[in-house]
Amino acid sequence: MQSTGLKDKEETEIFEGDVVRHIDFLLNNETVNKVYFKDGSFMYDVVVDEYTYDVPIGEIIENSIVEVIGNIYENPELLESVEE
Fold first, then answer.
1. 41-81 pLDDT, tens per residue?
2. pTM > 0.70: yes or no
3. Which residues contact 46 (CB under 8 A, 6 or more apart)?
4. CATH of the domain at 36
5. Where is the YopX protein domain (predicted)?
6. Distance of alpha carbon 30 from alpha carbon 9, whole angstroms
7. Range(s) of the domain holding residue 59
8. 49 occurs within a structural domain
């Protein structure tokens, strides 16, 4: 797994393939999804209502709370509700 060079709220380094909880207080929204690499950036899918937006993880960290809760290899069950 490749490091994003970023850290979560607990100062845990964030890697590609990590499963992250994202809490956005402005949108009153919580999302759990994986960090992935696309078009030269580390991205994260933010779900708002029925829409999904891929957003650079660095932008998410600047504007909300992010917490690494596992990774896709050791904790695939964390994404089961996302994939349904």
1. 999 988 778 888 899 999 888 878 999 999 999 999 999 86
2. yes
3. 22, 24, 29, 31, 33, 52, 53, 54, 55, 60
4. 2.30.30.290
5. 1-80
6. 15
7. 3-74
8. yes
